[in-house]
């Protein structure tokens, strides 16, 4: 394989450096700035003609700016006759807009996918909110799974007889991945309506009494679901609650709320840079590349 160059967008520069080191590639320099009127300027500062390029950029908040920057990088690489162009979007913004609910709605995740694929040859993302987003791409597209990275972290804590719980059935896949590393049981919470205004949330099949519970989800945003799940699990006798997420979107003061409501630990990967992004996905990406 010839020379490869890794470019890190604004959201993923440290991650891009880590990946470049692991795959023995060069880091590509970019000049990026904003004009006074808010329009963006971008320049690729290295010769990319005939060279394979990897672009790493999460399209997290501010989503529109980071998507625009990603499209600028890709278009510039194509215009300058780069070889194979691979895009890694660790966190895929607008991924929760994955289907239309009424006629006339824009399917935003599909719109973004169509624009990304115009100037690249393959696409990777990590734990998409819905896996069928891959179907929007006409180029090779693959989802990577970071749940074992969470599992390896919790394994270092040497918890006695832990259980892994997802806050709903949508998180079951993440819970299974973490539990597989820990060799422990996993489950997800089910809501059961007891009567008008009364809802019970409890694990489908596991008793959490006196257990260390690892509560995991793909995204923590406002965190309302996590807070509600924690309260229910503690009420059912859980000894400790440890929280793990892959994508720390983190709106508002959710980290303080999680600790205030009894979380013993809160950890995330660095698909998005945050105050709890202690775990890197660099090896996951490097191995895929």
Describe the structure.
This protein has 289 residues and is an alpha/beta fold. It has two domains: 4-145 and 282-288, Rossmann fold, CATH 3.40.50.2020; 147-270, 3-Layer(aba) Sandwich (Rossmann fold), CATH 3.40.50.2020. 29% of the residues lie in helices and 29% in strands. It has helices spanning 13-22, 63-79, 108-116, 147-156, 172-182, 224-235, 254-260, 282-288, and strands at residues 4-8, 26-27, 30-34, 40-44, 52-56, 85-89, 122-126, 141-144, 163-166, 186-195, 198-203, 212-220, 240-248, 263-269, 277-279. It has a seven-stranded mixed β-sheet with strand order 11-10-9-12-13-14-15, with helices on both faces. A six-stranded parallel β-sheet has the order 2-1-5-6-7-8, sandwiched between helices. A two-stranded antiparallel sheet has the order 3-4. A hairpin with a 5-residue loop joins strand 3 (30-34) and strand 4. The model has no long low-confidence stretch (mean pLDDT 94).
Based on the model shown, name its key terms:
single chain, 289 residues, alpha/beta, Rossmann fold, 2 domains, 7-stranded mixed β-sheet, 6-stranded parallel β-sheet, 29% strand, elongated
* Total domains: 2
Mean pLDDT: 94
Question: pLDDT below 50 for ≥5 consecutive residues: which ranges?
Answer: none
Q: Count of helical segments?
A: 8
H and E order: EHEEEEHEHEEHEHEEEHEHEEH
Main structural class: alpha/beta
Helix content: 25-40%
The major sheet is characterized as: 7 strands, mixed
Strand order of the largest sheet: 11-10-9-12-13-14-15
Quickly name the level 1 CATH class of the largest domain. Alpha Beta
What separation lies between the terminal Cα atoms? 12 Å
Rg measurement, Å: 20 Å
Beta-sheet strand percentage?
25-35%
Tell me the quaternary state: single chain
């Amino acid at each position: 394989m010839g020379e490869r160059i890794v470019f890190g967008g604004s959201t993923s520069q440290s991650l891009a450096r880590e990946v470049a080191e692991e795959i023995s590639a060069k880091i590509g320099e970019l000049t990026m700035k904003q004009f006074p009127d808010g329009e963006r300027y971008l320049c690729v500062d290295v010769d990319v003609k005939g060279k394979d390029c990897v672009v790493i950029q999460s399209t997290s908040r501010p989503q529109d700016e980071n998507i625009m920057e990603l499209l600028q990088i890709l278009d510039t690489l194509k215009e300058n006759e780069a070889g194979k162009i691979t895009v890694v979007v660790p966190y895929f913004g607008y991924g929760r807009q994955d289907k239309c609910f009424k006629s006339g709605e824009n399917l935003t995740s599909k719109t973004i996918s169509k624009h990304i694929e115009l100037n690249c040859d393959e696409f990777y993302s990590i734990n998409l909110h819905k896996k069928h987003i891959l179907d929007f791409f006409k180029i090779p597209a693959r989802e990577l799974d970071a749940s074992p990275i969470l599992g390896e972290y919790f394994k270092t804590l040497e918890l006695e007889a832990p259980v892994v719980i997802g806050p709903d059935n949508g998180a079951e896949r993440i819970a299974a991945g973490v539990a597989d590393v820990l060799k422990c049981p996993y489950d997800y919470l089910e809501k059961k309506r007891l009567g008008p205004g009364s809802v019970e949330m409890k694990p489908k099949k596991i008793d959490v009494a006196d257990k260390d519970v690892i509560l995991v989800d793909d995204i923590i945003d406002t965190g309302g679901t996590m807070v509600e799940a924690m309260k229910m699990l503690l009420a059912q006798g859980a000894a400790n609650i440890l929280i793990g997420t892959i994508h720390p979107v983190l709106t508002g003061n959710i980290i303080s709320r999680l600790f205030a409501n009894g979380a013993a630990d809160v950890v995330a990967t660095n698909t998005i840079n945050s105050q709890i992004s202690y775990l890197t996905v660099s090896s996951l990406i490097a191995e895929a590349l």
